[in-house]
Amino acid sequence: MLKLESVQISYGAIQAVRDVSLEIRGGEIVTIIGANGAGKSTLLKGVAGLEPVQGGRVTFDGRDITQVPAHQRVGLGLALSPEGRGVFADQTVYDNLVLGAYLRRRDPAAVAEGVERGYRLFPRLRERRDQLAGTLSGGEQQMLAMARALMSEPRLLCLDEPSLGLAPLIVQDIFTAICKLRDDGLTIVLVEQMANQALGVADRAYVLETGRITLSGSGAELLRDPSVRAAYLGAH
Ligand code: ATP
C-alpha cells in the first residue's frame, strides 16, 4: 500500500532521514521504533507530505506521491495523527471532529456518521463532546487526535507516539483502539518509544537509528531480538 524507496529528508545540514526504504501492506500494523531524535517523526511527516522529501520516492497504492501536497494525500486516503496531538484547544471536542472532515464538509450525513464512529471508538469523547479540547486530559486529547484523523476516512493511518506521556491504563485503551481499527481493515503505521507494547501489536516492525533502518522483522521477532531488548526494552 505504501512504499518508501531510499527516502532522504534533511533540515539544512542535518540529515534526519537517510536512505530509508520500507513497505507497508494493506491491513497491517507496522511499528517503527527508535530512540529520541532517530528521525521517526520526520519520516512520518515525509509520508504525510508535511516535510519535503529531498531524495528517493514515496508510492501510495502504486502512485508516486513524492511531490503531492499534504492536503491531497489526505484526499487519497492517508492521515496523520501528529505527535503532541495538535488539537484545537479553544474548540469543543465536537468541533475538532468536524474540522477533521474538512474534505467532506458538503456531506453532513457522512460527517455525522464519522463523528458517531469516533464516539463509538472512544466513548469518553461522547461524554465530553461540548468540552473545550484544551481542557481535556492528555489521554483524552490523544483519543481526540486519533478520532479527528479518522474523520477523513483514511485507508492508512499514521500515528506518531500515541502513548507519549500517558498513564498505563489510558495507554491500554489507546492500544485496544489501534487493534480494533486494524481488525476493521485499517492499515496503521505506529511510531513509538513504548517499544514493548508497540511490538506486541505489530505485524511487522522496523528499527530506526540516526535516520537509518537498522533492523526489521515481525513484531514477535523484534521483541525477542537481544539488541532490541537491550536498547529499547530495558532488558539485559
Ligand atoms: P522523538 O522520539 O524525540 O520525537 P524522533 O525520532 O521523532 O524523536 P525527529 O523529531 O524526527 O526524531 O528528529 C530527527 C532529527 O531531526 C533530530 O536531530 C532533530 O533535532 C532534527 N529536527 C527535527 N525537526 C527539525 C526542524 N524542524 N528543524 C531542524 N531540525 C529538526
TrEMBL record:
<keyword id="KW-0813">Transport</keyword>
<dbReference type="GO" id="GO:0016887">
    <property type="term" value="F:ATP hydrolysis activity"/>
</dbReference>
<keyword id="KW-0067">ATP-binding</keyword>
<dbReference type="InterPro" id="IPR003439">
    <property type="entry name" value="ABC_transporter-like_ATP-bd"/>
</dbReference>
<dbReference type="InterPro" id="IPR052156">
    <property type="entry name" value="BCAA_Transport_ATP-bd_LivF"/>
</dbReference>
<keyword id="KW-1003">Cell membrane</keyword>
<dbReference type="InterPro" id="IPR017871">
    <property type="entry name" value="ABC_transporter-like_CS"/>
</dbReference>
<keyword id="KW-0547">Nucleotide-binding</keyword>
<keyword id="KW-0472">Membrane</keyword>
<dbReference type="GO" id="GO:0015658">
    <property type="term" value="F:branched-chain amino acid transmembrane transporter activity"/>
</dbReference>
<keyword id="KW-0029">Amino-acid transport</keyword>
<dbReference type="InterPro" id="IPR003593">
    <property type="entry name" value="AAA+_ATPase"/>
</dbReference>
<feature type="domain" description="ABC transporter">
    <location>
        <begin position="2"/>
        <end position="235"/>
    </location>
</feature>
<dbReference type="InterPro" id="IPR030660">
    <property type="entry name" value="ABC_branched_ATPase_LivF/BraG"/>
</dbReference>
<dbReference type="InterPro" id="IPR027417">
    <property type="entry name" value="P-loop_NTPase"/>
</dbReference>
<dbReference type="GO" id="GO:0005524">
    <property type="term" value="F:ATP binding"/>
</dbReference>
<protein>
    <submittedName>
        <fullName>High-affinity branched-chain amino acid transport ATP-binding protein LivF</fullName>
    </submittedName>
</protein>
<dbReference type="Pfam" id="PF00005">
    <property type="entry name" value="ABC_tran"/>
</dbReference>
<comment type="similarity">
    <text>Belongs to the ABC transporter superfamily.</text>
</comment>
<dbReference type="GO" id="GO:0015807">
    <property type="term" value="P:L-amino acid transport"/>
</dbReference>
